[in-house]
Automatic annotation (TrEMBL):
Name under which the protein is recorded: ABC transporter substrate-binding protein
Record's signal peptide: 1-21
Stored InterPro entries: ABC_Transporter_SBP (IPR050902), ABC_transptr_periplasmic_BD (IPR002491)
Keyword Transcription: no
Organism of provenance: Rhodovulum strictum
Pfam families: Peripla_BP_2
Record carries keyword Signal: yes
Keyword terms of this UniProt record: Signal
Gene3D superfamilies reported in the protein's UniProt record: Nitrogenase molybdenum iron protein domain
């Protein structure tokens, strides 16, 4: 009787090998394309995007800030999710197959997670409103929820177009936070003001990014709208400048506007901030 030797590829017809290879390739591609089942977000702005886009049960944790109404535009919704503090050990314990982070999330945490083979995707800081659709689409692609993301983008773009300010003279707005901190060109705050039909005092003074405005410059500019930060319950020396008599004597200080969590992230809620400012612009114009 002939001895039965090992039978490998030589015993299989070439056409059968090609079909098998193709099947394995397709299976591998399907595995790669499969939507993540356990997503953890460790950044406030990715929290918002994930809560808006993820399917039920897909998002298993958001950052602690997400449930803070002083910081988050979705604080109520965030309370439905377990909160994390962004530490590597607690994130690993959640067994995620995808972690969403910001560009400036803790690099030690990001490095540790990646060394452990956990996929981490970092989102850039949004500096312009027209960057938000790309952020939404990025989140949708990562979560395997492209259709949901496109619906959000369409809704966002339609509302943005409806809020476009009319041409003409633009009133002057001044963001003035504790210590005289403001936001100039190249910031999301500056673009929010522009979309609402205002000029930005910090930009007019040549500020790029975040920086300080002297109270003398603000008083001399006599802005049409003063935009403050809401005070915290406890007082601080940084907030003392907001009660300066010269500031309180300006006409704009009588009815200031306030920044809120809608100003913080490149998410659809930013248009809520634009809408409120647009109402103030119309009131200033007597509309």
């Amino acid at each position: 009787m002939a001895r039965a030797g090992p039978c490998l590829s030589a015993c299989v017809r070439p056409s059968r090998l090609i079909s098998l290879a193709a099947a394995l390739t397709l299976a591998g591609a399907a595995a790669l394309a499969e939507a993540p089942r356990r997503v953890v977000s460790i950044n406030l702005c990715t929290d918002l995007l994930a809560m808006l886009i993820a399917e039920p049960g897909q998002l298993v944790s958001v950052s602690k800030l997400a449930a803070d109404p002083r910081s988050s535009a979705m604080a109520g919704a965030a309370r439905a999710y377990p909160a994390n503090r962004g530490g590597a050990e607690e994130i690993v314990a959640l067994r995620p197959d995808l972690v969403l982070a910001g560009r400036f999330s803790d690099p030690a945490t990001i490095s540790m997670l990646r060394r452990l083979g956990i996929k981490v995707e970092q989102f850039e800081i949004t500096r312009r409103i027209d960057e938000i659709p790309a952020q939404i689409r990025q989140a949708g692609q990562l979560l395997g929820r492209e259709e949901r993301a496109e619906a959000l983008v369409a809704e966002f773009q339609a509302r943005r177009a409806a809020l476009a300010p009319p041409p003409g003279v633009r009133p002057l707005a001044a963001i003035f936070h504790p210590n005289g901190y403001s936001q100039g060109t190249g910031t999301l705050s500056d673009d929010i003001l522009a979309h609402a039909g205002f000029d930005n005092l910090a930009a007019r003074l040549g500020r790029t990014g975040g920086g300080l405005i002297a109270i003398e410059d603000l008083v001399m500019a006599d802005p049409d709208l003063l935009i403050l930060a809401r005070p915290y319950p406890a007082t601080s020396r940084a907030e003392e400048i907001l009660g300066h008599p010269a500031l309180r004597a300006t006409a704009a200080a009588r009815q200031p506007a306030y920044t809120d969590p809608d100003w913080t992230c490149g998410a659809p809620q930013v248009l809520d901030a634009v809408a409120r400012l647009a109402e103030r612009r119309r009131a200033l114009a007597g509309e």
